[in-house]
Amino acid sequence: MNLRxxxxxxxxxxEWSDARMxxxxxxxxxxxxxxxxxxxxxxxxxxxxxxxxxWRGTPEYPPKLDTFADALALEAWARTYYAEAHDxxxxxxxxxxxxxxxxxxxxxxxxxSAAVPxxxxxxxxVAMHSAHHRAQVSSRIRELGGEPLLVDYILWIWSGKxxxxxx
Length: 167
What we know:
Elements: H1 3-27, H2 35-55, H3 71-90, H4 94-97, H5 106-110, H6 119-143, H7 153-158
Helix pairs in contact: 1-3, 1-6, 2-3, 2-6
């Protein structure tokens, strides 16, 4: 499997995992109004969109959390990302994946001059960053007494790489 194919698969798994996370949020009493859960979910969905906008050459800052009426509005917004992201990642070739992508926020985050990653490296970063924050949401769901659905990449593979089932 080449890098492009792997990233396409990774984004399919990422959507499946995000859908399962949102199902867990909806099923756990208090989760859909929990400040920590909403902030983490908003953060990683915002980052997904911010990277996509940079990849397309049109950097933009996604909406702040307080612009969403509730968790359902945030979930609906997050869900729309995937059609665009899947199309974009599927359109990439080897040359595009090796293209340098300067991230406008990188220097500020590291407090200096950031090395410039490739497009492929940033696509991988989005999937890894999302997984990190889904884990935090799962931990908080457990703290609230819920039982989050498993969102592991290997579970997606063992399950036959199913399509996401959004709540």
